[in-house]
What does this fold into?
Amino acid sequence: MKLAVIGSGNIGKSIGTWAAASGYEVVFSARNLQHAQEAAKAAGHNASAASVSEAIKEAGMVLLAVPYGATKELLTELRPLLKGKVIIDPTNALNADFSGLAIGFTTSAAEEIAKVVPEAKVVKAFNTIFASIFASQTSKIKGNTISVFYAGDDKEAKAEVAALISKLGFDAVDSGPLAASRLIEPLALLNISLGYGLGHGTSIGFSFVR
Amino acid sequence: MKLAVIGSGNIGKSIGTWAAASGYEVVFSARNLQHAQEAAKAAGHNASAASVSEAIKEAGMVLLAVPYGATKELLTELRPLLKGKVIIDPTNALNADFSGLAIGFTTSAAEEIAKVVPEAKVVKAFNTIFASIFASQTSKIKGNTISVFYAGDDKEAKAEVAALISKLGFDAVDSGPLAASRLIEPLALLNISLGYGLGHGTSIGFSFVR
It folds into this structure.
């Protein structure tokens, strides 16, 4: 299945590049097509670039690698193209100074995104891991495989996202329905807090051991 | 430092017994003194039993092993005895059917507890681990050391709780101020959800890898 990456920031470039290196066909896209072309060129084999709408049309799975604050306007515009598509949501709705979540408990970024594009199949994933880990194409830290917690309401969409997670070498942990994003998004903030405020740096992650 | 355990449920008995086996002096307490005496007898060496107020008077550190819903009334009554004490809060404010948290995002169980006993030093800890793991006195699962995320506003209190966590063989992860309980409490619900709803059972945990 082809993966469209929306957004040319660190998350989009690093996951997209790694997915391409792992055998996925990846089409990078961004508001600024030149940024998408640069990302595709850097990724090399299996990678191409297109406008955001073209990328979505080509792909079955869409990585929404844009800041949470930009998702509503973007998805409202793109909604007609997203029917039946799998949307991977790696966003976190952080407040202005990154010290906390802007929403939570009674909803989540993923659920708000799903409300905007109800015909798409939103799967929360990849939000608890720093972009630098994706960039280094490493799914292990000191021998421990990092877990990617994913959540969604569509079984097949989840299976496709789980396959991508596993392809990258991560431990794919089915964490339940999309509403479980209310639990996974706080974990991302814990990750950010441990990495920055508490000094562990960005080569960190969580392993679900069982 | 002597550890008082309040509550004779699985969490109190299992952590208290293990702490005693690890060299801590532990005084078990419960509304029903007989339950505390049974717990102390089962724990054996280093363990004793007392009324709740006597136990608190003897100890510097208090494990609040009661359901969250019982904490407010209990602590309001005990408040005069708790000045300067370290309170370890392993509670989770679950809703009636255990499907979600009853509070969160703008507050946490730990912060609500701290509001009731502002003269005590509340440290969130042990809430993301099943009682059966404490009962088995195992801090590793398949070779992976389980992390205990702890949070609090008093540096010395946190150091004392971290020492207990480490003594039991867990990986003690300083997760920041008490407000970080807003992140650690959702992680507990993820743990419960993975263990029960998603079928992984209770021999599970999270490792913070770095």
Q: What stands out?
A: Chain B has a mean pLDDT of 96. The longest helix of chain B spans residues 181-195. The helical segments of chain B are 10-21, 33-43, 52-58, 68-78, 109-116, 131-136, 155-167, 181-195. Chain B touches chain A through 37 residues (CB under 8 Å).
